[in-house]
Design goal:
Blueprint: H1 2-16, H2 24-33, H3 38-44, H4 49-57, H5 66-81, H6 89-94
Helix pairs in contact: 2-5, 3-4
């Protein structure tokens, strides 16, 4: 049964089509506002710093499940430091957290 949900999750990720991530400049601003280095974020996302730098610069895009984790991190940082991003991305980013982690829906939804 979990394969069915994994397939649906993949379709949902495809439907979001990048709208769960902020513009590149805002990604970097939030990371720096939190006092995080690219190395720290890359380690948390289990990727290389060079790969993360490309994600942050927008020259490459993370794939699932790392994309969801990155989107969720950005949503958390935006909650703390505010956001200058377009409307709608924050809700999608909050929904990026997998259901099996204990938080299935954004607060207040």
């Amino acid at each position: 049964m979990s394969e069915i949900f994994a397939a649906v999750d993949a379709l949902m990720a495809k439907a979001r089509d990048g709208r769960d991530l902020l513009e590149q400049v805002e990604r970097e601003r939030l990371r720096k506002a939190a006092g995080l280095t690219q190395v720290e974020v890359a380690e948390a996302l289990q990727t290389r710093r060079e790969t993360f730098a490309k994600w942050e610069a927008g020259t490459a895009q993370p794939r699932s499940p790392k994309r969801g984790a990155y989107a969720f991190l950005l949503a958390g940082l935006a909650d703390i430091h505010g956001t200058r991003g377009p409307d709608g991305w924050l809700v999608l980013a909050r929904w990026a957290r997998p259901l099996d982690t204990g938080t299935s829906t954004p607060e207040g939804e």
